[in-house]
Amino acid sequence: EKWPKGDEKSWKAALRGVTTESPEISKSIVNHVQTSLARAPYNIDDFGAYQAAALSVRDNLIVNWNSTQLEYSRKSPKRAYYLSLEFLMGRTLSNALLNLGVLDNYSSSLSSLGFSLEDILVQERDAALGNGGLGRLAACYLDSSATQELPVWGYGLRYKYGIFQQLIKADDGTQLEAPDPWLDHQNPWELPRLDVTYEVRFYGNAQRWDEGTGRATWSGGQEVLAVAYDVMIPGYGTKNTNNLRLWESKPKRGFDLQSFNAGNYERSVESSNSAAAITSVLYPNDHTSFGKELRLKQQYFWTAASLADMLRRFKHLEKPISQFAEYNAIQLNDTHPTLAIVELMRILVDEEEVPWDGAWTIVTNTFFFTNHTVLPEALEKWSVPLLEHLLPRHLQIIFDIVSHPAIIRESSLFLQSVEKKFPGDREKLSRLSLIEEGFPKQVRMANLAVVGSRRVNGVAELHSDLVQKNLFPDFVEFYGKSKFGNVTNGITPRRWLDQCNPSLSALITETLKIERNVWLKDLYKLEGLLAHVNDSEFQARWAAVKHQNKERLALFVERQLGIKIDASALFDVQIKRLHEYKRQTLNILGVIHRYLLIKSLKPEERKKVVKKVVFFAGKAAPACTLFKMSTLLPLTIRLIVNVARVINADPDTNQYLSLFFLPDYSVSLAEILIPASDISQHISTAGTEASGTSNMKFCLNGGLLVGTVDGANIEIAEEVGEDNVFFFGHLTPDVEDLRYQHTYHPIPVEEKSPALAHVLNTVSSGIFGGDGVYEPLLNTVRQGDFYILTDDFDSYIRALEMVDEAYSDRTEWIKKSIRTSAKMGKFSSDRAIQDYAQEYWNIESVKL
Ligand code: 73E
C-alpha cells in the first residue's frame, strides 16, 4: 500500500478550515493527526486515518455523553442497569457515524484528504468481549436503550483479551486458538476514569455481630482495585448517549507489597492469583459452567464494583435507602451476576444497617433475571467450600436467605415459607432449595436468582414456556405465574440492516417513501413493502441488491481463501458457535448426502441441479484442557474443512456444490455474510435453542430460514407465514421420548435412515481422509444420538429439497424474500427494550 495518500495542498487547506468538504470535520481530523497522534500532516496510512477519524468522532460523542449524564443527574429518573459478563460490540466507528448522522460528511471529508471511508472502517478491530448470542444481545439492547432515550447503563468487565482468534490449520483442519490483544492500540471509544475506583475484597473472615440482627463484619483477605472505563453508547437520531461502564482490575497499592515484605515473593507475583488476572481474559466457553475459581472472582469483582458505583450514585440523590428500588432496576443477564443479589444484601445489612427484612424487600424489588438457556450443563452451581473460602460473608448470607434461625419475620424465611405452603413435601423442598446436597454441596445460582428477583423471563415464547414448565415448575407453583414472563429477543436494525446492507436500506427508504430515520426507529413500517411485492421492477431491484451482496461476499472469500465463487448459486449459510445442540454435524452430513447424490448423476442430469455454495463459520470452545479432550466439536470443524477440500476439488461436482469454512467468525464477518444469504440454517434439536438472534438478522435482510420448530424460529414463522419458512424435524415434546427410545429400544441407523447410514459409512470409508479420526464423532450419531440427528435427517433432507424447488421459481422466491423482510418489525430490539422498560423496569425516557 502506498502512502502518504493525501497531498500536502488539501491537508493544509483542511487545517486552515477552507476545504469545501465539511471543513470542520476535515479540520478536526487533521488536528488529531498532528496533536493526538503526533504525526506530520498527511503522513499517515489507513490505520492512522482511522485513528484520527475515530478521535474526531469521539469528540462529538463526549459532548453528547456529558449532556446526557448531566441531564440524568438533574432529573434523577429511575435508572436501569444491565449487568452482563459479555458485550459483543463489534466495530464502533461506522455505528457512531450513522447514529450521529454524519456518515456522508465524514466520507466526503476523508476522500478530500485522500482516503476512502470503506478502507478506513475495516481498520478497526472488533471489540469482541463475548462468546455469541448472549453478548451480542446485550450490545443490541444498549443501542436500543440509547436510541429510545432510556436511562440505561451497562456494566461489564474490560477484558484485556476478548474471545480468542480462531485459526484453521491448513493441513488437517484443526482449530488453533490465539489470544485477541484488542487493546494493543489505544481504544478511542473508551474514557478511562482512573479516579473512579472501588476496593473489592476476597477471602478473609466474616464475623457475625449477634445472631439477632444477621449483621456481620468482613475483613482481611485480599483487596483489589476496580477501575472504571466508560464506553460511550450513542443513540440513533438523538443526542442521548448512554454509558457502558467496564471494570478493570488492578492491585491495590500495598497488597502486593505486603506479601513481598513477608518474604512471599512467589505469592506476590503468582499470576493466577494476582489482581490483574481477574480481568485478563474472557472465558471462551458458552453453555458450560466449570466452577473455576477465577471465574467466580470475575463475577464477584464485577458485581461488587457495579453495586458500589450504583450506591454512590444513589446517595447523591439524598433519598432514604428504603427507596433504592424506586430509583434503580437491575437486570441480570443470565445467572453470571447473581452474586449481586447477595452483595446488595451485604451492603444493606452490614453497612447501611438496614434490618434484614427491609433489606430483602429492597433487593427483591430491584432485581430482574433473564434466563438464556435450559441446557443443564450451563446452569451455574458454585461449590460451598469454594464460596466459603473466597466469599465467606456471602455464603453466610446465602444460608441466611435459605433459613436463618435467628432472623425474625417469617415472610422472608424462604424455606420456612415453602414448608408452610407445601407441608411435608420434602422432595419439593429439596428441588426449591438454593443448596444442592452432595459432596461438596453446591449453591444453585439460578434458584438464587429466581428467589432474589422481582420477575423472571425467558427469551422467546417457547423458551419462556420451558423455563416455567421444565426448569422452575416448583417456583411457578410457589410464587404464582405472574412472577414469570417472556421477552422475545430482538436485534438492532441500525447495525443489522442499515449498516451492513446499505443498498437494501436505500431501496427500502425509496420504496416506502418514508424517511430512513423513521422506519429505522419503527421497524413495523417495513410492512409497507408488502404493497410492492408484485411490482416486477421492485422485485428486480430487490434481487439485484441480494446479488450485489453475494458478489461482495464472493470477493471477500476469494481474497481470503483464494477460491472463486459463483454468485449466481444459492448461498446457504450456518454461522454460530459450534455446539452439539446446534447440530452443525447434521448440516455437514447433509452436504455429504448432496455431494454423493450429484456424483451419482449422469453429467446431463447434473445440469438440472440447483447450484449451491455452503458457508460455515463459528468458533468451538477450546477442547483440550490439561486432562481431557472435552468435546468433539473441533472434530466437526475438521470434518467440514476436509469435506470442503475434497468436494471443492471434484471436477464432476464442484460447479454444482461447493463448501467453505470461514475462519475466525466475528460480528464483522457476520455483517458480510448475513446480507448475502439466500437461506440460513437454524437447526437445533427442538427445545434446545432458547431463541437465536441471527435468524432474525438473516430474515431482516431477505434471507429465508431452514429451521427446526425451536426458539424464535417459531415466532418468525408466525410473523412471515409458515409458507415462507422451511421447517423440518421433530417437535419439542417428542424429543424426550426419542431419547428414551435411543437408550432402551435402539433402532440401527440403517433402518431408521438408510440415506444417513450411507453418509456415515462413506465418511468411515475414508474418502475425506482422516484415517478413522471421525469415528468418535460418527459414533455419537450411531449410538445414543442425544441430539436426535437420526430421527431428523430424512425430514431435513426433504426440507432442503423444498428449498431447491422453491429457488427454481425465482420470482416466487423473491416474493418470499420481500415478504419475510417486511414482517420483521416485531424483532427490532427497540420493541424488546420497550417490553423490559414497561413490564419490568418501570423506567421512562429522558429528553435532553
Ligand atoms: O438461543 C441463544 C439466545 O438467542 C442462547 O443460546 C444464548 O443467548 C442468546 C440470547 O438470548 C445463550 N448463551 C448462553 N446461554 N444462552 C451462555 C451461557 C453461558 C455462558 C455464556 C453464554
UniProtKB/TrEMBL annotation:
Gene3D superfamilies assigned: Glycogen Phosphorylase B
Domain of life: Eukaryota
GO CC annotations, alphabetized: cytoplasm
Residue numbers carrying N6-(pyridoxal phosphate)lysine: K697
Cofactor entry: pyridoxal 5'-phosphate
Molecular function as annotated in GO: glycogen phosphorylase activity; pyridoxal phosphate binding
Entry EC number(s): 2.4.1.1
Alphabetic keyword roster: Allosteric enzyme, Carbohydrate metabolism, Glycosyltransferase, Pyridoxal phosphate, Transferase
Pfam family, one: Phosphorylase
UniProt-listed PROSITE patterns: PHOSPHORYLASE
Coiled coil: none
Catalysis: reaction(s): [(1->4)-alpha-D-glucosyl](n) + phosphate = [(1->4)-alpha-D-glucosyl](n-1) + alpha-D-glucose 1-phosphate
One Gene Ontology term from the biological process aspect of the record: glycogen catabolic process
InterPro entries linked to this entry: Glycg_phsphrylas, Glyco_trans_35, Pyridoxal_P_attach_site
Function according to Swiss-Prot or TrEMBL: Allosteric enzyme that catalyzes the rate-limiting step in glycogen catabolism, the phosphorolytic cleavage of glycogen to produce glucose-1-phosphate, and plays a central role in maintaining cellular and organismal glucose homeostasis.
UniProt similarity note: Belongs to the glycogen phosphorylase family.
The protein, known as: Alpha-1,4 glucan phosphorylase
Species for this entry: Russula ochroleuca
